[in-house]
Each structure stands twice: as structure tokens, then as C-alpha cells.
Amino acid sequence: MSRLRLINAESGVKTQARGRILNTLAVPIRNILGEVSGDIWEGVEEIRLRQNRPLMLVLDRGDCFVDPRGAITPSAFKAYIVTGDDMKKTLQLMSSCSIYSLEEELRQGFLTLKGGHRVGLTGKTVLEQGRVRLLKHITGLNLRLARELPGVADKAIPYLIDETKNTIYHSLLVSPPQGGKTTLLRDIIRQISHGIPSLGFSGLKVGVVDERSEIGGCCAGVPQMDLGPRTDILDGCPKAEGMMMLIRSMSPQVIATDELGRGEDAEAVEEALHAGAKLLTTAHGYSLASLRRRPILSHILAERIFERILFLGFSLGVGTLEAVIDGESNSSLLSKPLR
Q: What count of other Cβ atoms lies within 10 Å of the Cβ of residue 97?
């Protein structure tokens, strides 16, 4: 495919994705955001709706407000004010007019839309025996746009693969919030599931425990993201329980999860090791020192379970590969940041 045809194809896909996103929003907001220029839209990471407050976009370079004509403004006083009716109609569209059929999603505080876009929710919580049973009177929505970036893991992959055994190293991906670790994780899963002929690497069976529906962006259990042909996914499942389920039933060669953090996660990690599966997971952090201040991760690091620890940052933009650490020796395998 020629470069011009490739650009046109990518533009068409992005236009379709934008249309699908806008169609989940109340008509007044849909019309306003439909006027936002294409170059601004390219950088949109989140659409924030808060009842009786300004319509906001979070961009890759900061946040801004949107006025009633679809123009970007730094002033909250000039922005369109989201109404209660806007919130109600948007929720109806996002839930296909059946918001109460999504009780489990509401309890967890998020919905996943077709295309893998994730909607965070805030409002009045209903408790049962001290735990959240339901979320109602929803007054805040955060639509986080899901974007696949095939190839984003190309620079990281050589550090993760053990070519002599056609497998990967136990690996931990670390970044600050919104630092790109989930996007990187997703593409690593895709590549090791497909296989990487240029490296002589055959595809592996990957089991994904997607507790927060962020890795695969599942909608009705079907991944909206390309996680590869050899990947099985448990969506919305607690990590510890999901890892055990996969080991018992799907014989994964690699188990991938989102962020580790609870005590039972550490126990499940050890069980996965005994089963012979390789681990690929993420954590919020800035450095080894910051990870060691967290009890569960401190324990795992002390056991030297992870053979590779990759740190992402922002020095050359979101998702910059800042450091790669050998988990056995704590020595650096990367001399300079890679984007």
C-alpha cells in the first residue's frame, strides 16, 4: 500500500472511531464536539462530563474546556455547561437505554463501550454490608479513548525475549499514571501471541486477566483490541482468582495482568511460577525505590521474581522507555531513553 493510501486509510479509521464515540454522547454535546478541529481531536485522551460544570477535554499536552461553538478555551467561564439532561441522555446511549442492567459495572464504577473505550463514573454510592453495591445519581463521566498503537512495543521487545528458549522473561512494566504502560502491555501481548518472525520467535499462548477491562477493552466479553490469535482473556476478573483459573484450564505459557497490588496477587504470582508460566504485568511507580515502598511489590522484588523491569516516562513524550533493569543483578540494560 502506498504511503498516501495508508494515510488515507488511517484517516478513515480515525474518522469512524470519532463518529462512534460521538454517538454515545447526548446530542448537544455530540454537536459541540463534532465542531472540534481534527488536529485537536487527534490529541484527545479523555472527554470529561460533570453535571452543572464545564465540558472538558484532556489532551496529550494538558486539559482545556470547550465552548458552545466547539472552540477550545482555557476559561471555564466560557465553556459549555453540562446539564442534568445531558448526563441522563448520555448514560442512556452508553447503556443502550438499559443502565440498570449493568449493575456489576456500576458497582465497579466504570463501563466499557464498543471499541474498548472506558467510561469512569462518579455519583451516589449505595452500600451493602459496608461495600459498594451500586452507583446511582451519576453526575460525572470520564470517557477515556482507547487507542491501539501497533508497533509501540518494538523497542521494548528485544529486552523481554529469551531467544534461546523461545519464551519471555518474567517482566514488570512500570510508569507513572497515564505513562503508557497499558498501551505497551497490550502491544507486547499482541506481538508475543502472533510471534515475531524477524526475531525467530514463535507465538506463545497468552492468558490475560483483565480485572479493570483496560487491556482488551472487552465489550460483552469480546476483546475490542487485537491481543493476538493465541490469547485467552478473562474480563473483569480479580487477578489472583483469574490467574489460578487460567492455569487450571487454559495452559498459558504467559500470564499477563494489569497492576499488582494486593496480598493475594503475590500468592497467585508464586503459583504461576510453580506452574511454569511466565509473568507479564504492570505497576504504578517512578523508580525501584518507589516500588520498594509498597509492601506487596517490595516482597516480590526481594524474591527477584522479575527478570526484566522496564520503566516508562515522559522525557521524549508519553511512553518513553527510560530504563531497563536486569531483575537479577539490578544492573541497567539500557544506556539512553528510547521512545
A: 9
Write the pLDDT tens digit of every residue in 30-88: 999 999 998 898 889 899 999 999 999 999 888 999 999 999 999 999 999 999 999 99
The full set of domains in the chain, from first to last, is: 3-144 (no CATH), 157-326 (3.40.50.300)
**What is the C-alpha separation between 92 and 90, in angstroms, rounded?**
5
Work out the number of other CB atoms within 10 angstroms of the CB of residue 267.
13
**Phi then psi for 134, rounded to 5 degrees?**
-160, 155
The 10s digit of each residue's pLDDT in 85-137 is: 999 999 889 887 455 556 666 667 788 887 778 898 888 877 777 777 667 78
Cell reading at 77: 467561564
Q: Is 131 left (phi over 0), alpha (psi -120 to 50) or beta?
A: beta
C-alpha cell at 272: 504461576
**In sequence order, what are the residues at sequence separation of 6 or more whose Cβ sits closer than 8 angstroms to the Cβ of residue 9?**
1
Half-sphere exposure of 267 (CA within 13 A, CB side): 7
